[in-house]
Structures are given as structure tokens and as C-alpha cells.
Amino acid sequence: MHRIETILVATDYSEQARRAETRAVMLSVELKIGTLEILAVQETRMGLNTPATASQSTELDITAVDNVLVENRLPVSLIQSVEALQCIRSLAVGKPASAIARRADELDADLTIVAARSKTFVSDFFTRDANDELVRLCNRPVLLVHTEPARAYTKVLVAVDFSEESKEAARYALAMAPSAHFTFLHACLIPDEGIMRESGLNTEAMNASRMAMCEKARGELNLFIAQLGPRKQLITRAIHYGHTVPVLCDYAKRMRADLIAIGRRGKSCFEERLLGSTAQRLMDRTTCDLLVASTAPPGGWDDRPAA
Q: What is the reported pLDDT for 53?
């Protein structure tokens, strides 16, 4: 299981960004991480577009972090532990997604945290969303914070498609929520089912095919979980028939999940603009926080042993 030691959280000082900052502080204290960096991003300097460059980090007054915890009425145990947290501030100038991704690489951040932005207007349809752009550019897992943080994650839904990407998402989610109840969910769907129906395949035969596919997926899901290695969290397995996003949204609502973890598989920019990424569609249709991870780059990431 991965261990998270360095967290980068980006802020523009908005209300949504404040939620991301609060979640970052909570995770930092809960996981006893080594470094938390709060990155302020501004798009221009003196009205001119400039390349993204991180300023020299300066120590953050620990009182400021303490105030974040107190103002949000978080557990006393967290407030008492904040003095052990190394927290720094930095500044980046440039396009937000590029600046954040670049700083995450420079910092070698294990986790990058930003505020989730839902698409609410038709005019956004062909506009590359900032969340999508960051997820595409960032080599490390990205946590999109949607809700007001009130406690540690307690109910985590992991989307499983048996890819290496979803395995990475599961490993990081397990590291982020050591005390949560996990549900590993696979959405089954027969390829070209519509064509099969048009060819005259009857309902009984279709149902038999669905059942066979789901049963096969059940064995694969057990193997998938076993390959994640030792863990202490309680785990539930679920197989449902249907398209991934609707199945995830429905299940997240029913189980009252506070975090969904998914793997990001490569798509063309045109495809993401036309259909929207899975991450963005989930953001638009749920109120959960969302963890998005991709596979490790060549050579691997630093998979530190658990303490």
C-alpha cells in the first residue's frame, strides 16, 4: 500500500478553495505526513501572462493552520497534533492547471488537492475545465474536494475496471482513509448489446450472458483486491450491470459515500471535450470528493513502506 508523505494543496482564496485547504490540513494531521505545501496561484503578473514559476517557499505561521482547524470545529485531537506538521506557503504565476502540475512535480508531491468545479452552464461544453486539465497534466493522484470537510473519510467507493489505473486509485484511497469502510464496485456491460438485441437474441439469452459476465467479474474482483496487498479496512465487494458513471452515482448515493476513487485512462482531448471525462461527469452528478489516479510513470513512483 502506498504511503502519503507530501501533500500539495492549491488555493485561490475562494470558498471552494478553503474547503480544499481544510481537507489538506486534516489529511496531513491524520496521516502524519512530512510536508504540506499551500500553493497560491495567480494567472497574471502586472496584467501580463507569465510562465508558471513557484516562489521560494516560506514557513507558514502554525497559528494560521491551527485556526483552520478551530474555525471548522474539527476534533480536538487534530488541533493538538497540528504543531507536528511542517507547513509552507508558495506562489505560482501562470495558467492554474499548468502551474499546479509543475509545482507538484517539483515538490514530488504524493497527492495534489484542489477544489472541485462542476460544470453548470451549456457554454462550458466545449471549454476545457480546469479540473480536467489538471488531472490530464498531473502525474500524481489528484483529490478534488467537493464537500465541506467535517471528519475523516468514512465511506469510500472505489471504481474497479481491472486496469492498472484503477489499482493505483485503490492503493492511494486505502492510504488516505485508513479507518474507512471501502466498497469496491465493478460495473459490467456487454459490448454491443444493442446490436445483439437487433440480431434477434432473446431476453433469456441476454440475461444469461449478463449473469455469466457478472460471475466472471466477481472472480476478477476478488483477485484485484488480493493484489492490493495487506490492509486493515473493512471491504465490501459489489458487481452491478450498467454504464460506469450512472452505476457509480447511484451506488454512491445509496451508500452515502464521502469519497469516490477512480483511475484515469488516456483519452484524446477531442473525446474529453465532446463527452466529458469520467471525473468531470462524476463531479457534475455527485456531491462526493473524488480521487483520480493514473498509472505510475516509467521507473515507478516511490512506494514507501508503511511505517
A: 42
Question: Phi, psi (5° rounding) for residue 132?
Answer: -60, -40
Q: Nearest to residue 138, comparing CAs of 294, 9, 301?
A: 294
Q: Which residue has the higher pLDDT, 283 or 111?
A: 111
User: Lowest-pLDDT range, 12-21, 46-55, 79-88, 295-304?
Assistant: 46-55
- The answer to whether the beta carbons of residues 153 and 181 sit under 8 Å apart is no
Per-residue pLDDT, 114: 94
**Cell 490530464 belongs to residue:** 136
**Residue found under cell 486505502:** 174
Query: Helix-strand-coil percent breakdown of the chain, rounded to 5?
Result: 40, 20, 35
**Contact yes or no for 141/168 (Cβ under 8 A):** yes
- pLDDT score recorded for residue 100: 94
CB neighbour list of residue 269: distance below 8 Å, 6 or more residues apart: 128, 136
181-188 and 234-241: which strand pairing?
parallel
- Given a cut of 80, whether residue 124 has pLDDT beyond it is no
Integer CA distances (angstroms), 83 to 6, 13, 140, 150, 200, in order: 16, 23, 27, 20, 68
Within 8 A by CB and 6+ apart from 28, the residues are 7, 36, 85, 87
Q: Return mean pLDDT, the chain.
A: 78
* 58 vs 86, higher pLDDT: 86
pLDDT confidence of residue 145: 94
Return the SS3 of 43.
coil
Maximum Cα interatomic distance, the chain, rounded to a whole number of Å:
70
The DSSP line for 82-107 is: GGG-EEEEEEEES-HHHHHHHHHHHH
How far is residue 226's CA from residue 146's CA, in Å, rounded to a whole number? 30
